[in-house]
Fold this sequence. Notes:
two-stranded antiparallel ribbon; phospholipase A2 activity; alpha+beta; twelve-stranded mixed sheet; single chain; 658 residues; phosphatidylcholine lysophospholipase activity; 16 strands; signal; Cytosolic phospholipase A2 catalytic domain
Amino acid sequence: MHTSTILALLAIPNALAAPPLSQEISIRNAELAQGLTRREYQEAAIRSLGDKSYAPYKVDCPSGWTWIRNATEGLAQGEKDFLTKRQSKTSPAVNTMASSHGIPNPPRTPTIGVALAGGGYRAMLTGLGGIMGMMNQSSEGSASGIGGWLDGVTYWAGLSGGSWATGSFMANGGTLPSDLLANLWNLDSNLIFPEDGKLSFYTSLATEVNAKSDAGFPTQITDLWGLAIASHVLPTQYQLSNTPNLTFSQLPSVVQQLGDADLPMPIIIAAEREAGELVVAENATVWEFTPYEFGSWAFGSVVKSIGAFTNMEYLGSELNNGSPNGSCYKGFDQLSYVMGTSATLFNSALLQINGTDTGLVTGLIEGFLQDLGEDQLDISRVPNSFANYNSGENPIADLEYITLVDAGETNQNIPIEPLLIPFREVDAIIAFDSSFDSTYTWPNGTALRTTFERAKILAENTGTEIRMPEVPSENGFINGGYNTRPTFFGCNDTTTPLIVYVPNYPWSGAANTSTYQLSYTDAEAQTVLYNGMRSLTLNGSIETWPTCFACALTDRSFGYTRENRTAECQSCLDTWCWAGDDNTTTPNTYDPVIGSVPPWLVSKGLTSNGSSGPTDAKGVNNTATQNTNTSSGTVRVGKMGMGLLSGMMGGLLLGSLV
Ligand SMILES: *[C@@H]1O[C@H](CO)[C@@H](O)[C@H](O)[C@H]1NC(C)=O
Ligand SMILES: *[C@@H]1O[C@H](CO)[C@@H](O)[C@H](O)[C@H]1NC(C)=O
Ligand SMILES: *[C@@H]1O[C@H](CO)[C@@H](O)[C@H](O)[C@H]1NC(C)=O
Ligand SMILES: *[C@@H]1O[C@H](CO)[C@@H](O)[C@H](O)[C@H]1NC(C)=O
Ligand SMILES: *[C@@H]1O[C@H](CO)[C@@H](O)[C@H](O)[C@H]1NC(C)=O
Ligand SMILES: *[C@@H]1O[C@H](CO)[C@@H](O)[C@H](O)[C@H]1NC(C)=O
Ligand SMILES: *[C@@H]1O[C@H](CO)[C@@H](O)[C@H](O)[C@H]1NC(C)=O
Ligand SMILES: *[C@@H]1O[C@H](CO)[C@@H](O)[C@H](O)[C@H]1NC(C)=O
Ligand SMILES: *[C@@H]1O[C@H](CO)[C@@H](O)[C@H](O)[C@H]1NC(C)=O
Ligand SMILES: *[C@@H]1O[C@H](CO)[C@@H](O)[C@H](O)[C@H]1NC(C)=O
Ligand SMILES: *[C@@H]1O[C@H](CO)[C@@H](O)[C@H](O)[C@H]1NC(C)=O
Ligand SMILES: *[C@@H]1O[C@H](CO)[C@@H](O)[C@H](O)[C@H]1NC(C)=O
């Protein structure tokens, strides 16, 4: 039977009552007579048809190699090889960008990382807007003096919505985000209620996820959710209508720009939470997915032990104490699944689906609910490659699965931790923050503060080092205006990277859309994207900013101290560094004016025209027309209202997250 026939049957509720039209239908009636329910029959029929390329598949186990690598060994060989190639690209780019601001070539090339926070489509768009500001190919980014820096970036970390940005940008070979918006993304089609092709969308979702389950792997709402995201932001050939089989480990071979190290190395993170555990930022285990490996630098929640890594390509293979003990698999590390896992907070969005088209998916979800229990809806399970590895010391040695959640659930919503790992020797981090912290969905610095608190506790209690500089409390962030404009942290502390914190600020539009807005018109998406860019470029309106940004990114590689820094760069640091103040008084509700210049910049006399109203950016055609009727502050809430969701998620800490 053709898929289309089955689809047609499913679409007509009383098709089953019609007389047999073909042999297949006779068979079906026979099965019905055997007592199968309509849904069971549908499932059986669909299971045998259609694309199943999402499912992991058995391969011969490679012999004579190491399956598990001790984290004390440092970086993966694949990562080291990548870094060598990447440095030949970043080195000339850094020199070009530095010299265009009168800065000499640094004595060594700095290792620069970017980190994109979580927050659904808002975070994806804001983060990619910031990235676009760093791209030479963007006329506005380039005119602002910031465009070109992306070529100097070595690492790119993403979390939740920031991981969708990571996956979409990488899989599309580094295409300019405004072109992705114009030519590929279909954000106007709701993530879980697509407007057209509904039936085949849901049928394909169910077929792919059932195929993974049939291959013997745990499945959960995350699989459905990840495939749905992928079908909106990955290249068309990897969407549900084709073969959704792009794995993370394959990225460098499938995407030439990544293979040639013309793009930064992607890292996507998630946090571990086993059944019944209460995990907070201080004791969560942070897991990394890279094209080379899956693993963590430190295992365990309360008691930490040295972590380990396993090969990404063979993730899902059955290992016992670091050796194959059963079958080996490839294809588990689907990019869609990794993006879904990093954003498992959104799983409950799928609980909303209901209707004739969605029966198969609803059936699957009911199964997950029974298997997992409602408090485990937001988890994603990875077969534990570290079973019996280093037993006695390894706190996860007994687990069958590693149970992952959205790392934003621990409030550590900017994925800077991978960039603070001593082995990576990162010099500067550009941290894009589009968290939903304050009443009006703007960031308040909690994400960085949480990582700072975690770093202190890890170092004191477990001896695990992450190189996090001090930052103020969230009240201190708001009172100091540090959440309105880029702020440098770690200026005096040469043992850590220097962090350039870039908060989402309403330079040109109401980019504080709800985390749960699951569809955007092109105009809305453009508003959030361009506002994200301007949060970094400062709309091209602050004359000294491009030079100061260049000073920050190269400071560590000059080994500068207050004594020998150039006067110009010292003046930049005096202006943009956190001064060390922390006014912990409870601030008034943070409610920035849409389309304004941050008051801090005005009070410092940094704006060229001294105005606090919207300024025209260099190279911008016309800020107003690019943001057609979007500065009004009206935000269209998707089909899923926030209230309903919060109710459903009950105790899951929702309001404060991502
Ligand atoms: C940006 O592009 C222009 C024109 O293609 C080129 O001259 C310039 O060197 C590029 N800058 C960087 C940093 O790559
Ligand atoms: C994806 O699946 C299709 C169809 O099975 C296959 O032809 C293709 O080689 C697969 N692509 C990758 C990257 O594995
Ligand atoms: C993590 O820390 C919190 C607070 O410190 C504690 O309540 C919780 O029990 C810890 N979780 C585990 C798994 O130990
Ligand atoms: C290893 O394989 C044996 C035999 O199939 C099985 O009994 C045992 O449970 C497996 N161990 C692990 C850790 O999977
Ligand atoms: C789904 O539909 C059924 C029947 O129409 C209804 O009883 C139920 O409340 C709906 N569920 C949701 C979450 O809308
Ligand atoms: C990892 O390496 C450290 C230091 O070399 C060593 O103490 C530890 O025993 C190793 N762990 C395993 C499981 O090999
Ligand atoms: C800052 O954000 C956190 C977490 O999102 C929230 O709990 C807190 O109330 C916020 N504080 C202020 C002063 O906005
Ligand atoms: C967006 O921000 C503006 C200004 O802070 C505020 O008036 C508006 O209510 C916010 N919208 C949302 C959805 O939080
Ligand atoms: C600045 O001084 C520090 C400390 O003496 C030194 O390590 C560094 O190399 C100097 N940098 C330059 C560019 O002179
Ligand atoms: C860094 O040093 C300068 C000069 O000594 C000082 O004014 C500033 O407060 C320090 N910053 C921090 C964060 O401690
Ligand atoms: C501290 O913050 C409060 C609340 O925003 C403000 O009223 C007060 O002026 C601030 N204090 C100083 C010394 O800046
Ligand atoms: C201005 O807009 C035109 C047409 O939309 C476009 O071709 C041109 O590249 C834009 N210029 C800049 C500087 O963005």
